[in-house]
Amino acid sequence: MRHNIRLVLVDDHPMFREGVALTLGAEVDMKVVGQGCNVDDALHLVKKKSPDLVLLDILMDGGGLNAAKQIGSQHPSCKVVMLTSSEEEEDVLEALNIGARGYILKGIAGPELVRIIRSIEAGESYVNPALAANLLGCASTSNTSTRGGQSGHLSDLTERELETLKLVSKGLSNKEVARELCLSDKTIKSYMTSILQKLNVRNRVEASMLVRMQQK
């Protein structure tokens, strides 16, 4: 049997939160160790309960993105996942840029939510496919007008660059990637610069989404 995935849920809608808690708590490998409704609750529960993963609503009191940023800084071992109704591009990009491992829209079916949480705990990352496609479409339009080309393909990358990008797409920082590949931070930064140029994307978030989309 798998070890229990310890979860904290923070959402300002009690009925929704309780429904998610019941769904996840029914799984043999998951345990909801705390629930809250605002940023203060989120920070307190993560510090007190040391969960493996925290689910945050962006629109809760104090701002879920604010909570995600503080948790990422103070408790880096806790994986942050946004479970929200916000489909705003700015919210998705900010969440991923501050280290969220997942961006899930409310309304998702219970079994799918369970599957995604297990995959994130195993080291993967997740963005709602429609949002990811929309972001890549916007990036492609922007790149076409500013750089005169479409997004590149993974086949344009060297083997080492592809290794680097796959690790980045799992949420690893440059320093963590360097340690994983036994390379220097400077080398990884150089790889990332080359990757962004070859794929014709603006940042590591777009590159990560591109690798996930093209590998499907």
Please provide a written account of the structure.
The protein is of the alpha/beta class and 216 residues long. 55% of the residues lie in helices and 13% in strands. It has ten helices and six strands, in the order βαβαβαβαβαβααααα. The protein has helices at residues 14-25, 39-49, 64-74, 89-97, 110-121, 129-147, 159-169, 174-181, 185-199, 204-214, and strands at residues 5-10, 30-36, 53-56, 79-84, 102-105, 126-127. The model is unreliable at 139-148 (pLDDT under 50).
Task: Summarize, please.
The chain has 216 residues and is α/β, with parallel strands linked by helices. Helices cover 55% and strands 13% of the residues. Strand 3, helix 3 and strand 4 (79-84) form a beta-alpha-beta unit.
Describe the strand arrangement of the main beta sheet, using strand numbers: 2-1-3-4-5-6
Uncertain residue segments: 139-148
Helix content: 55-70%
Query: What order do the SSEs take from the amino end to the carboxyl end, as H and E?
Result: EHEHEHEHEHEHHHHH
Straight-line distance between termini: 29 Å
Estimated radius of gyration:
18 Å
Helical segment tally? 10
Mean pLDDT: 85
* Beta-strand proportion: 5-15%
Shape: globular
Subunit arrangement of the protein: single chain
Would you tell me the structural class of the helices and strands? alpha/beta
Secondary structure: number of strands: 6
Give the biggest beta sheet: 6 strands, parallel
Write the layout of secondary structure elements.
Elements: E1 5-10, H1 14-25, E2 30-36, H2 39-49, E3 53-56, H3 64-74, E4 79-84, H4 89-97, E5 102-105, H5 110-121, E6 126-127, H6 129-147, H7 159-169, H8 174-181, H9 185-199, H10 204-214
